[in-house]
Amino acid sequence: MTAPRLSHLDAAGHAVMVDVSAKPDTRREAVAHGHIKMRAETLGLILAAAMPKGDVLATARIAGIMAAKKTAELIPLCHPLAISSVKVELAPDRAGEGIDITARVRTTGPTGVEMEALTAASVAALTLYDMCKAVERDMEIGQIHVIHKSGGASGTYDRASGS
């Protein structure tokens, strides 16, 4: 017996939330990466905790965590999940041209947390922009993508290995 195909479209072609009730709960994890490019002077102010709006990194970290928990309210047809952990790491990139963002989300449930990790990384980047825009308006947010996913029927995905 094959499992029914999961789709966001019903038999009539209307958008619906996928029914995951028949799927078993498994441990799941997703890691997303993002980047915000900025001038070295702006990065220096952040690292020296000298930005006018306060501790930029702590605020962005908390914003990312909060966003992961609200993903189902932001992304249409996304399942509300009981997230067991969210970690958002922010670090200057090697070139000194910005901040790398890594969001790791875990749950035990019938569906994955890729959207939660992507949302956490995106909102952390947007928060960094918001808190630094008085100093620099031409920052660039990008490179937001899943770098790791594990759990569930589709198994493990690692971007670095392509599988």
From TrEMBL:
Pfam family membership, one: MoaC
Keywords on record: Lyase, Molybdenum cofactor biosynthesis
Residues reported in the UniProt entry to bind substrate: L77, C78, H79, M115, E116
GO biological process: Mo-molybdopterin cofactor biosynthetic process
Superkingdom of this protein's organism: Bacteria
Domain Molybdopterin cofactor biosynthesis C (MoaC): 17-152
Reactions this protein catalyses: (8S)-3',8-cyclo-7,8-dihydroguanosine 5'-triphosphate = cyclic pyranopterin phosphate + diphosphate
Residues annotated as the enzyme's active site: D130
UniProt-listed InterPro entries: MoaC (IPR023045), MoaC_bact/euk (IPR047594), MoaC_sf (IPR036522), MoCo_biosynth_MoaA/MoaC (IPR050105), Mopterin_CF_biosynth-C_dom (IPR002820)
Gene Ontology MF, one: cyclic pyranopterin monophosphate synthase activity
Entry's EC annotation: 4.6.1.17
Biological or metabolic pathway of the protein: Cofactor biosynthesis; molybdopterin biosynthesis
Subunit field text: Homohexamer; trimer of dimers.
NCBIfam families from the UniProt entry: moaC (TIGR00581), PRK09364.1 (NF006870)
Homology family: Belongs to the MoaC family.
Function: Catalyzes the conversion of (8S)-3',8-cyclo-7,8-dihydroguanosine 5'-triphosphate to cyclic pyranopterin monophosphate (cPMP).
Protein name: Cyclic pyranopterin monophosphate synthase
Gene of this entry: moaC
